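User: what does the whole thing look like in 3D?
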Amino acid sequence: RAAQGRAYGNLGNTNYLLGNFRKAVMFHEQRLLIAKEFGDRPAERRAYSNLGNSFIFLGEFEMAAEYYKRTLQLARQLKDRAVEAQSCYSLGNTYTLLQDYGKAIDYHLKHLTIAQELNDRVGEGRACWSLGNAYTALGNHDQAMHFAEKHLEISREVGDRS
Amino acid sequence: VQRMHLIQVDSVQRWMEDLKWMTECE
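Assistant: Here's the predicted 3D structure for the full assembly of 188 residues, as structure tokens:
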């Protein structure tokens, strides 16, 4: 049964990479059931994250947000700061797709805090870029300028010309 | 509003490009 769980996860991932997102969801849901059966929380966490990603490409952003929230919850329980940061980044982007810029900003700020804590300059740059765009969408140009300047500074530092 | 929507797309597009290849391995 445990091997079956891993096989479902691999089938979900393979279908995802092939662009078969409906099938990917089906397999990751099966993987999730088995992870829960075994009380395997890291596997449960992976399934949530994989499901969130699949729903993004199905255009079902509300569903994606729900799964990313569960990913975030488990990442916190498992004390995995890197995954917590990634979940916040995903949630920020998902709420941007949903055009809920207030929530997008909340999550991008959370991502920024963790990226700074982990000394992840690339992550920090992404967070600033995203925040600049979200504040622009809200018409808050002072904050947008602040984050655009930080984005430029970090991009120069990491040598990202684009 | 339309212009702002276009502006916000670039950072999200970049994220989605990375997401395409992002799977959590067993």
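In plain terms: The interface with chain B takes residues 5-6, 9-10, 13, 16-17, 43, 46-47, 49-50, 53, 56-57, 89-90, 93, 96-97, 99, 126, 129-130, 133-134, 136-137 of chain A (CB under 8 Å). The mean pLDDT of chain A is 97.
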